[in-house]
Amino acid sequence: MSAIELKGVSKKYRRHTERPLATTLKSYFLHDLWHWQNDHKNVIWALRDLDLKVEEGETLGVIGRNGSGKSTLLKLISRILKPDAGTIAVNGKVAALIELGAGFHPELTGRENVIINGIILGLTKGEIKAKLDEIIDFSEIREYIDDPVRTYSSGMYMRLAFSVAVHVDPEILLIDEVLSVGDAPFTRKCMDRMNYFKKLGKTIFLVSHDLGMVQSWCDEAVWLDSGQMKLRGNPTDVVAAYTKEIR
Amino acid sequence: MIERLTQLFKYRALIQILIQRELKARYRGTILGFLWSFVNPLVLMVIYVLVFSIYMRIDMQNYPVFILCSTLPWTWFSSGLNEATNSIIINGGLVKKIYLPSEIFPFVYIGSNMIHYLLTIPILFLFLILFQVKVSWLLLFFPLIVCIQFIFAYSLSLILSSLAVQFRDLLHVVPNLLMIWFFLTPVFYPIAMVPGKYLPLVDFNPMARLIMAYQDIFFYNRLPSIPSLSIMAGLSSLLLLIALSFFEARKDLFAEEV
């Protein structure tokens, strides 16, 4: 059974262009109220008719230019967004390292936020309590863990958020451009953790502009272009083709 | 429908922790801390007593107690509804990044304001004793009235919060409506002062029925109107059904529109 399977998936967004008040009121009552769902002019297709299969234990790198649909793809897999067409089947618990620190409250302490964030990410209270020490140690900011998060530097903030995220222990890991959160030693530590996940046979879905990493670390690569798959295959070949195109 | 409610139950740990987050964060960094929960309603009470009892001479015994027992649940209703209307938008960070059933967000704000309300009940009791107002076993109705109010407020907040994502105007409309609603509800005046021909206006006001039930058990020490509470229970449950499906139909758009 594949870990992730997308069939004919399309996703569109509505645009929100600011218009003068008189226009918005008029067009709202005369037009949008009746037509907004099939208003073709104001629609952007982020993904078009995409088929994609990821096998269990596979590490897949996704590359492509800004706006090519990479993040939309991750959000669809993590069920945050619903596709406008097609089906998405996901087998296993998903953790999305999409943007870290979602749900952090600036007034609360690091420790309190770890607990809240852990539960938001799907851990039970018991699990998070059991892992609390490990998470704090991983973040290396134990000294400040009982200070409010608003006093943290952005580096400390990301370290803490990342530490919670990698302790969720999912079967499928979605990573969007977050491995560059800390200084070199911390990045190395994160890579170790990722390698550990890989060794455990977890399915990893990596979106990155770090072509070197995609090439050296992924089993396969996919190149997205304007919401469609342009190329899939051996990371070295895909990265080479992509580099040639964007140069 | 049942599925939606079990969904809420399944996520109870998250709801609980988000309510805790709201309660903890509210007074974090202040010197008085939790005491603000007592100060705010007392200030409100003093000013109402000054204006309505002393300046405008509403002739009523133990007026401060009357004021307290009705403004406290009203404050729960209005702050809860105000915060809940904004709940999807303000939690946009979560809605956009993590898959969660969004109906928990309005629930969290109605819930955290309810806990706030319950925590201020001791002040009410203090004043009941101070003014020697008698209460009896009728206080057993209290949990029931609170439950009905919760369902009513949560249902409204489901509709308002989902609409507010698309129509931000609601964030300005709701506070105004709540102010009008406040004056039309017998919160600081007894129902007896309303002229007979305007009584239908009170009858069609669900909050009036609830506030009067609180006044019955805390102030008048009499049985709250059972037909009135039954109507409210039925109405709130029906509204909840409608609100949940209304919310369901719109929630897929939240992650994009928020």
Properties at a glance:
heterodimer; A: 247 residues; alpha/beta; Rossmann fold; six-stranded mixed β-sheet; three-stranded antiparallel β-sheet; 8 helices; 9 strands; 26% strand; B: 258 residues; mainly alpha; 13 helices; globular
Fold and architecture overview:
The complex is a heterodimer of chains A (247) and B (258). Chain A is α/β, with parallel strands linked by helices and 247 residues long. Chain A has a single domain (2-246), classed as Rossmann fold (3-Layer(aba) Sandwich). Chain A is built from 8 helices and 9 strands. Chain A has helices spanning 21-35, 70-77, 110-120, 125-139, 154-166, 184-199, 211-217, 235-246; strands at residues 2-14, 43-55, 59-63, 85-90, 94-97, 172-176, 203-207, 220-225, 228-233. In chain A, the strands form 2 sheets. A 6-stranded mixed β-sheet of chain A has the order 5-6-7-3-8-9, with helices on both faces. Chain A has a 3-stranded antiparallel β-sheet with strand order 2-1-4, with helices on one face. In chain A, a hairpin with a 2-residue loop joins strand 8 and strand 9 (228-233). In chain A, helix 3 (110-120) packs across helix 4, helix 3 (110-120) packs across helix 5 and helix 4 (125-139) packs across helix 5 (154-166). The longest helix of chain A is centred in the C-terminal third of the chain and has 16 residues, at 184-199. The two termini of chain A are 38 Å apart. With 258 residues, chain B is mainly alpha-helical. Chain B has one domain (2-257). Chain B is 75% helix and 0% strand. Chain B has helices at residues 2-10, 12-27, 36-55, 63-85, 87-90, 92-97, 104-130, 142-166, 170-184, 199-203, 206-220, 226-250, 254-257. In chain B, helix 2 (12-27) packs across helix 7, helix 4 packs parallel to helix 8 (142-166) and helix 8 (142-166) packs parallel to helix 12 (226-250). Chain B is globular. The two termini of chain B are 24 Å apart.
